[in-house]
Amino acid sequence: MSAPILAVIGGGQLARMMQEEASALGIHLRTLVETPDGSAAQVTVDAPVGRADDADAVRALVTGAAALTFEHEHQDSALLSQLQAEGVPVRPAPEALLLARDKLAMRRAVDAAGLPQPAWAEIAGNAQEMRAQIRAFAADHGWPVVLKTPRGGYDGHGVLMVDSATALDDGEAATWLEATAAARAGHATNGTGGGGSLGGGAVTSLLVEEAVPFTRELAVLLARRPSGQIAVWPVIESVQSDGICVETVAPAPGLDPAAARQAEHIGRTIAERADVTGVLAVELFAVEAPEGTRLYINELAMRPHNSGHWTQDGALTSQFAQHLRAVLDLPLGATTPTAPTTVMVNYLGGDSLPPADALARALECEPRAHIHLYGKQWRPGRKLGHVNLTASATDPAGIDAVRERARAVVAILRGEA
């Protein structure tokens, strides 16, 4: 068998973990990395250096490749559409990827599909006009409201909670409005706040959403191949801190079976209507009440996702192996859990450099823990790895005990224990 070449744009930890599975399947991964010593570049033999918006670099990347896929959504849509028109299998296609990289496009598509999501509106104009639009929205839906940049947000960037009308007149919200108005007038700024957007051009309008009073956050992950086959993992519970997913529990403990079925229906509907290829993650707000659970779509990702890291050790097929299968149109693997419960805890850089013996002590602390490190230089708050721990416990106390054991491993890695 000749090894198919799969081209990947992006050289972070997600591409690194794709490479681990590509090796097992005999797939030749060619990854466009940002730096020659980045996370994916350390483990990928074929790792040219270049930017996602460098047409020459991307064209060289896809030469001889069976398909092109991505580690992140911050792509050049025009370039991808051109490649697709020239016959390059772009997976997911630019039209589908747009829903993960443009929140306005996503909100419109979700409305068109009749799926549940927070009330929302696009706001644009000069700063004073946008203030008036936000106040009118809040009059209908209440304070606080959530402001988002349509493109470029990640890990909490490009998202701002606004508590009251007075918060629009000064502080960060006012800065966003002024910057967005300036960008609309042709004076773009940089960054992911109002007025600038990572990988998406200038922000010339904003998204305002109602703040859903959720009781917990969930995510449903699935994979879809071009032929239409779909495989879905169990719905998981995620815990966010400062916009970053810090923990997940799979399956989501105590989730109403009807809500689990609805979450799967939401994921399948989006995948089929948008013709998604590869892994799709749908982040959800859950409002749980005695009469039942209401779900609201928060955001989408069309790639392996933090909420699916548990699948590496807690499911028969990991999200990384499944993504490779899906974009190459290979039969999908089973998504059956390998244990009643799997807990994932992210390892973020602590306040100081961890000691040299941190890994050895972490391994000794919990021999059953699966530690995944990304090869990144330490920086406070940076994603440096994660820990998976499987268990037979399904009761709240038992799951909490597993969480604490996984947290203890991460605390040692961070140099805090």
Automatic annotation (TrEMBL):
Domain ATP-grasp intervals = 107-328
Q: Which BP terms from GO are recorded?
A: 'de novo' IMP biosynthetic process
Q: Which reaction does it catalyse?
A: 5-amino-1-(5-phospho-beta-D-ribosyl)imidazole + hydrogencarbonate + ATP = 5-carboxyamino-1-(5-phospho-D-ribosyl)imidazole + ADP + phosphate + 2 H(+)
Keyword list (alphabetical) reads: ATP-binding, Ligase, Nucleotide-binding, Purine biosynthesis
EC numbers listed for it are 6.3.4.18
List the source organism: Actinomyces succiniciruminis
Entry binding sites for ATP:
103, 148, 209-212, 217, 298-299
GO CC, alphabetical: cytosol
Function statement? Catalyzes the ATP-dependent conversion of 5-aminoimidazole ribonucleotide (AIR) and HCO(3)(-) to N5-carboxyaminoimidazole ribonucleotide (N5-CAIR).
Q: Does the keyword Lyase apply?
A: no
**The organism's place on the tree of life at top rank:** Bacteria
Any keyword Heme? no
An annotated Gene Ontology molecular function: ATP binding
**What's the protein called, per UniProt?**
N5-carboxyaminoimidazole ribonucleotide synthase
Its UniProt pathway annotation is: Purine metabolism; IMP biosynthesis via de novo pathway; 5-amino-1-(5-phospho-D-ribosyl)imidazole-4-carboxylate from 5-amino-1-(5-phospho-D-ribosyl)imidazole (N5-CAIR route): step 1/2
Gene this protein is translated from: purK
Instruction: State the taxonomy lineage.
Output: Bacteria, Bacillati, Actinomycetota, Actinomycetes, Actinomycetales
Assembly information from the UniProt record: Homodimer.
Q: Which SUPFAM superfamilies match?
A: Glutathione synthetase ATP-binding domain-like, PreATP-grasp domain, Rudiment single hybrid motif
Q: Report the sequence similarity comment from the record.
A: Belongs to the PurK/PurT family.
